[in-house]
Design a protein that fits this description.
With 94 residues, this protein is mainly α. The protein is 81% helix and 0% strand. It has three helices and no strands. The longest helix has 47 residues.
Length: 94
């Protein structure tokens, strides 16, 4: 099994042989890591919110479809059910 290469150690070894201070590089890497972590957390949060909204939309749609599928005695009730469903879809679409 291949071992994971420690890029930070390799970079330190490389820059250790150079005649300049590497502290600035270390600061940049730390800032980049913090930024990457923040962006990843934000992406996960947005994905969770998207999944929650999608689930709610799906549940609302299924509830309305169940209402449409029920047998009704008055033909006007069918029209009312379909118009309720259409208005829900218009709200969800917006």
């Amino acid at each position: 099994m291949a071992s994971t290469i420690d890029m930070m150690a390799m970079f330190k070894n490389f820059t250790g042989a150079m005649p300049f201070d590497t502290k600035a590089f270390e600061i940049v890497f730390r800032c980049r890591n913090r930024t990457s972590k923040s962006l990843a957390e934000m992406a996960v949060l947005v994905a969770r919110m998207n999944a929650d909204m999608s689930t709610k939309c799906t549940n609302d749609t299924l509830i309305k479809i169940t209402e449409i599928a029920q047998v009704k005695t008055d033909p006007a009730d069918y029209v009312k059910s379909i118009s309720n469903f259409a208005s829900l879809q218009a709200v969800v679409g917006a």
